[in-house]
Amino acid sequence: MMADTTVPADGVDRRDFINIAAVSAAGVGGLAVVFPLISQMAPSADVLAESTTELDVSAIEPGQSIKAVFRKQPLFVKRLAPQEIAAANAVDASSLRDPQTLAERTKEGHGDILVTMGVCTHLGCVPLGAVEGENKGEFDGYFCPCHGSHYDTAGRIRKGPAPTNLEVPDYEFTSDTTITVG
Amino acid sequence: MSFPWAKEYKPANDFTKWVDEKLPLPRLVYNAVGAGYPVPRNLNYMWNFGVLAGFCLVLQIITGVVLAMHYAANAEVAFATTEHIMRNVNWGWMMRYMHANGASFFFLALYIHIFRGFFYSSYKAPREMIWLLGVVIFLLTMATAFMGYVLPWGQMSFWGAKVITGLFGAIPLVGEPLQIWLVGGFAPDNAALNRFFSLHFLLPFVIAGVVILHIWALHIPGSSNPTGVEVKQESDTVPFHPYYTAKDGFGLGVFLILYAAFVFFLPNLLGHADNYIEANPLATPAHIVPEWYFYPFYAILRAFTFDFVLSAKLWGVLAMFSSILLWFLLPWLDRSPVRSGHYRPLFRKFFWFGLIPCMAVLFVCGGAPAEEPYVMLSQIATAYYFIHFLVIIPIVSSIEKPEPLPYSITEAVLGSDKDAVLGENTTPAT
Amino acid sequence: MIRLFSIAAGLVFALVVLVSFGVGAYTAATETPVKDAAHEFYQKPKAPAGGFSFDGPVGNWDIAQLQRGLKVYSEVCAACHSLKFVAFRNLEQLGYSEAQVKAFAASKTVPGIDPNTGEATTRPGLPTDYFPSPYPNAVAAAAANNNAIPPDLSLMTKARNDGSNYVYSLMVGYGQPSAELKAEFPDFETPTGLYFNKYFPNLNIAMPPQLNAGQVTYDDGTEATVDQMAQDVAAFLTWTAEPTLVKRKQTGWAVLGFLLFATILAYFAKQQIWSAVKPRRAE
Question: What distance in Å separates the CA atoms of residue B243 and residue C164, rounded to the nearest whole number?
Fold first, then answer.
């Protein structure tokens, strides 16, 4: 229904008012319907409630990583070898694209456990390096083959198009050997 | 087409002028449902239901596309994804109840629209093509609704699919292979569910296409009206917009109030409890019936219980399909020179005291269990149904003496009051 | 031509269906119908005294009742009946805190996979898990229950006509066939392994009577009579069948209110517009 714009010969304001009100009400009703139509595409209740992921990290050897799944995305858990920690700490964090120290990216008392999302911050590919024998890139951490982003041993972006370091999700140590992510 | 006094579309500014030159779509809309379409001024509220049926089609397509985003057509998970929509998807419960009840209200609008056509003989020349396309729309809508009801994969879905495809098994010789081909197996399963989903998604757009043809055909002679007298002069008509847009807007509001009452307060009243039990090919529900809008035709199907020359099953199937297909013949069965039931005394009596009670009985019996007295009642009603359309209409239309018609719509509107005049603007304001 | 054809076709259809009618009428007149005890003595579900709190257009959940119903389900029904469309996380709607839901979930055992060997095993439930089924599959359920598979209860109150009252009635409807039934059908007997219940469509149900007074101990101190437990579990199963029931009605009032307002406006707008062309008396 479109508003009638021509003024009738006997045009009175009341007539215009009631028509404008009726058309506006129809418009408001239409807009109200749009809300659920948009909202239905947002994550549903079961997706939002997606479970936390619990992991046993005791079996990971220094220098090794495991791949786990958190919210349908890969999660890298790496036990850093001493030389890797040294390499990460040797860099001046303030000189990096996304300045962060290794200590800021690990939990106190567990400085050798690096938990990051296995999702390149550039366009979302899964970087290589978590599986034995894969290309670890120029900085001996992770390397994303899609567009050539190199991450260092602390998962920090060092070279290539990615804007930020690999994301560290919310997690906590529920015991000395288990972490709960999410 | 259209009448000489129809208003011409005048672009309001340079932009609309530019659009009109490249693609006269606004002009098309203006002439179809805008001020450029003169409509008889005496249409009553029965004439609202075409627009309401069209609204229902749009509503079903919108909610259906939403549901399809969350539904999975696989016999393993179809029932569970339907429950996922009801429980987890944001506003999913509302979308599904809107879609399920939307189908019922679509048919409500269609039935009133069709029976309006019966009473006012809207099928008569020069509007045969509109009528034929309308019957096609009705058949396509029935097919779409049937396949949609299968998708939740509840008990009624499954057994409905089995029983209805079983109808084709009644056809001699090719029946059984045809039935197996239709469901892609020996009983409905994944193959049937997937093809029904695919067609259930496709057919509404085909319906929308036929609706456009239906409206196109309508605009050749213009709308009929309650007197059945053709438009003779400008004072017989008013422009569709704003007069009928306003009237349809009000009608839509009333329709939506009733619809919302069902969606939010009685969402399962028109459905069947058994459809909340997951499909089980090994157990049939005690009482299988289709959705209410198929009741009359289901009653006709079940009315044939005795093998008379052909098997009762085949008679039932033939009669059920014939009961709708015979509507295609109506324009040529009714030879009365007068359209409107208001001026056809005998025709009117058969309509109100024959056809309407007959349909009411068929509606009740179609939903009732197959036991007496429902079976016998449905048999009498079925006999009347065929007699009404195939025997009474041709004969009555030949022999009855119509009552005198008004000279014009204007005269009909003014009535016998010699002093009455049309509104201040004999040429209506727009 | 077409009319002659149609009249002939119409008469044929009418004739054939009237033959069916005649045969049916003859059968009805000559044969006495077989009487059926289930048909005559089955009773439609009755509502509990006072009805349910969620009845009617403005009804709301009685949260305490739903919590009691959960207890009845967990301690009585869950031994045989699954609740597969309900997740533990949904229990937050019953007024439980996140921690309580976590603890409740952890107290249930759900199927899992050993992360080291990949073998099927069990683990404590998480809030995202669904209520576990008491049987691993339908065959096991049938085998354990004399071939009568206990149905899933998630949708039970929607899967039966007048479902909330049905569940309540069924739970309190056990007993012996009435004297009238015995008088009319002296041969009527409940088959071995089945139980008489006048609210079950064929009067014989495979489920034994379940509720005994004092069977569960309610946390809120309500006395656990059979009637009370039947009401509570029926209310709980109404919630499991449609957790959005109350939200639905509340949304409905807002929608109806708006539509009423918009329709009244539309009516006056229509009157205004049509007033320009309404017939009137000449002056």
Answer: 49
Q: Which residues pair with B127 in a beta bridge?
A: none
The partner residues of A149 in beta bridges, in order of sequence, read A144
Which domain, by its residues, includes A65? Answer: 48-181
Residues of C in contact with A23 (CB under 8 A): 269
| Rounded-to-integer distance, Cα A149 and Cα B166, Å | 62
Touching chains, A (3+ CB pairs < 8 A): B, C
- Tokens representing C157 are 């109150």
Q: Which residues contact B129 (CB under 8 A, 6 or more apart)?
A: B217, B220
Q: Under an 8 A CB cutoff, do C262 and A51 touch? A: no
- Per-position b or e across A76-96, b if 16+ CB within 10 A of its CB: bbbbbeeebbebbeebebeeb
- Interface predicted TM-score (ipTM) over 0.85: yes
- In chain C, which among 52-111 make CB contacts under 8 A with chain B? 57, 85, 90
Number of C-beta neighbours around residue B261 at 10 A: 16
Most B CBs within 10 Å: which of C2, C3, C160, C246, as the mutation test of the B interface? C3
The alpha-carbon gap from B203 to the nearest alpha carbon of chain C, in Å, equals 30
Do residues B227 and B411 make contact, with C-beta atoms less than 8 angstroms apart? no
Q: How far apart are CA C283 and CA C281, in angstroms?
A: 6
Q: In which region does residue B165 sit, left (phi positive, over 0), alpha (psi from -120 to 50) or beta (all else)?
A: alpha
The residue assigned the tokens 């997606």 is: A50
Sequential pLDDT tens for chain A (182 residues)? 344 444 444 545 666 889 899 999 999 999 999 999 999 999 999 888 876 788 888 889 998 999 998 988 999 999 999 999 999 999 998 899 999 999 999 998 898 999 999 999 999 999 999 988 889 999 999 999 999 999 999 999 999 999 999 999 999 998 888 898 98
Q: What CA–CA distance (Å, rounded) separates B359 from C153?
A: 39
The number of domains in chain A is 1
Spatial CA neighbour of C84 closest among C241, C230, C235: C241
Sign of CA dihedral B255, B261, B266, B267: positive
Q: Are the Cβ atoms of C17 and B303 closer than 8 angstroms? A: yes
Q: How far apart are CA B355 and CA B383, in angstroms?
A: 11
Cα B23 to Cα B8: distance, rounded to the nearest angstrom: 16
CATH superfamily for B37-288 is Cytochrome Bc1 Complex; Chain C (1.20.810.10)
Torsion of CA B256, B261, B264, B266, to 10 degrees: -130
Instruction: Please report residues of C whose CB lies closer than 8 A to that of A46.
Output: 87, 128
Half-sphere exposure in the Cβ direction for B255 (13 Å, CA): 27
Tell me whether residue A138 is in a domain.
Answer: yes
Domain presence at residue A174: yes
Q: How far is CA B299 from CA A117, A131, B326, in A?
A: 63, 68, 17
* Length of chain C as a residue count: 283
Does residue A143 lie within any of the structural domains? yes
Domain assignment of residue A21, yes or no: no
- Looking at B157, B223, B235, B378, which residue is catalytic? B223
Residues of A in contact with C89 (CB under 8 A): 45, 49
The single-letter code of the amino acid at A111 is: G
pTM, two decimal places: 0.92
CB A171 within 8 A of CB A179: yes
The CATH code of the domain that includes A69 is: 2.102.10.10
Indicate where chain B has its CATH 1.20.810.10 domain(s): 37-288
